Structure formats: structure tokens, C-alpha cells
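Review box. Two proteins, two foldings.
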Amino acid sequence: MDLTNQKRFYYGKSISLNINDTLTEISKKNVSHHFANDFDTNAGQVNVIVSLPWVNSFHFKPMGETTQNNTGFLGIGMGVEYFYKEKNFVGLYGSAAINFLAPVPVPIAYDGEHEFLSSLAIGLTNNHKLERFTVGYGLNYSRNTWRLWNDAYDPLVEGSRKPMTKSNNSLGLIANGYYQFGKQFFVGLHYKPSLLVLHTNPKLHYEHVISLDLVWKFKIKG
């Protein structure tokens, strides 16, 4: 009937919905929990986690080499968390991060010279849950590795670099922050600075790995 009316699609600046005058009642139970303010946790709860350090930024200083800065993709991590209070928990985590060229696993052929960076780490953290946010801090042990690949190496050619691998075993810290998008899915940043190299003569030596981390948590108790 309003086909020729210029206001046929105009509904005003506001619309009033009366839940007592509808066929279907609008209630909190009808709203997906995905956008709820919080997800409850309990003292004594235990979670097993699987993580994907999807984007990894490296700052390494291999002994006798120049500083190596590189960003790449992919990694894997696992861990366990224990809630000693309703909003506080400790976590033990292990992870591996690399600087793969592609954001998904695909075959890549490396010709000539290429540098690979990787980090294996074990960390222990104390964490606080603030509604959907969690923040944590703790200690970290890591093995940071720089590898020079060169399938075109020729000792008779000036400037041709010999393939080699150098690693640092270090103690350091962890800082992380995550946002919970669903009942089990979290996204956040993971910062792991290495501070003390554990060679024959331990010394201060700064390196770091920063990861954009995708995490899935599965409650097995509590």
C-alpha cells in the first residue's frame, strides 16, 4: 500500500520492541553465549590447551653473527592450566615457532642462500582472568636457533657463505595477553625475551620471540 510513498522504507529513528506483545519472547536464553560478558571458571579447574603461534617475529643474536630480525609463520604449542582461584591460574606450556614463508603449510623450494629462525621454549606462568581477558607473566627457558641454508655454496667462490647452524640456550621471561572469543577459542600476543645465555660462562644476552597466538582450551576437570 505504501509503494508510492517516499517514506515507504522509513521506520523512524528508534523502534520499540515489546517482548510481552510478540509470538516469541526475547530473553537472555535466546542470545548466543558467544557474546556473553564472561565465561565462568572455577577453583580446581584444569584445562589442556593446544596453540598455534601463527605469526612469529624473531630478534636473534647468534654468536659471531650479525643481529637477525625476521618475521614468519607457523608453530605448535601445548600446555596445561590449573585454576588455584576462580580467576587465577598457573600454566605450564611448551611451544615451537618458526619463520616459515607462507601462513599455511605448503611446499616451498629454497634455492641458494636462506636463513631459518626457530625457537623451542618451555614456560611457567601465573595468570589473571579479567572477564574475557587473561594476562600472564612468568619464566621461560628457550633454545633459539639460527640456521643458514645455502645449496649453492662453493668454497672457491668469494663471498659464498658456508651452511651452518648456531643455537643459544637461554633463560628469560614471558608476558602474554589473550582475548576469549568463544567458549574454547582465544587470540593473543605472546612475548618471550631471553636474557641469560647458558654457555660455559653464562652471560647477559638479549633475544626475543613475539607471537600472534591462536589458542584452544579444553576443560578436563572442574
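Next protein.
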Amino acid sequence: MTERTTTAEQDLDIIRRVGAGDLVAFRALVARYQGPLYTFVLRMVRRPSVAEELVQETFVRAFRAAPRYKPTASVSTWLFHIASRLAMNEAARSYQVHEVMRDTPDVPTEARSPLEELERKELSRIIEDALAQLPPQQRAAVVLARFEDLSYREIGKVLEISEGAVDGLLQRARQTLERLLRPFW
């Protein structure tokens, strides 16, 4: 049995308990997914306070929907789906009014030397700025594929599109990112 299978089985047990009103199980679900969901949402909306609110709303919605959860997708995919809908709505709103955050959000990383940290921050800023220029659905697909390591199938479930559509989104996003990042290579 793989680690991913074990985690999926544990998640299914937790969500069933949450659906029955078990608050200890809910706390375990939050503890397990708060970090990954926050990182994903932060990359989408680029504002820490908004990301925190959207992650909270994700868990509120998950808690309310847990009694009706059907295991057609993994619990993690289901949670990312809820978060992606909230984040894409916010990102689309910000994209339309051209809200831009001046500083790149700090996403937790390993400790590095000061020079490595400076280089990482600059590269991170450049990449985050390029990602912010993508339409929300393309941005979500890239973040889910690259940073959350989801398969095309899982991304399709999160975004409610086919695997072929995921491939198309990622191809268009790669072309745009390549064009935007070319001056930095």
C-alpha cells in the first residue's frame, strides 16, 4: 500500500467522522490541509489576509458539506476544488479591477544562506508576477500541477474540466509564462 493510498483512506475516515459532527476529526482535517490550501490560495490571490479568509471559508464549506460527501474524488481533491472556486472568483475579481500586490507573498521554504535567500526571493517574485498575469483558471492549473503536484485527472476534477482541457490550459499557460519569463533567462 502506498503512502498516498494510506493518506486517502485516512482522509476518507476523517471526512466521514466530520460528516457525523466529530469536531476532533474536523481539527485533524484542518491541521492536515490548512498549509497546502493556504499556499495554493495565496499563489492565486497574492494577498495573505484574503488567502486566510478563503481557506477559512473552504473549511466552513467542507464542514457543512461533509455529511453529503461522496468519494468520487479524494478528499484532498474535493478540498482543493472548494478552495479553487473561491480563489478563482477572487482572482477573477482582482484581475478585472487590476489589483496588484506590490510585494510577493512569502511562501514557507527551507532555510538558506542570505545570498541564496535573496536570489530565491527575486526569482520567486519574478515567477509570482508572471503567474499573476495569467487568467485565473490557467493560474489555478499551473499552481495545482507545479506546486501541489496534482495529476491532470485530479486537476480536472478540481476545476471541473476534462483532462484534455487541463492539458490545453497548461500549454497556453506555459506559452505565456515562457514569453513573460524569457527576458530573465
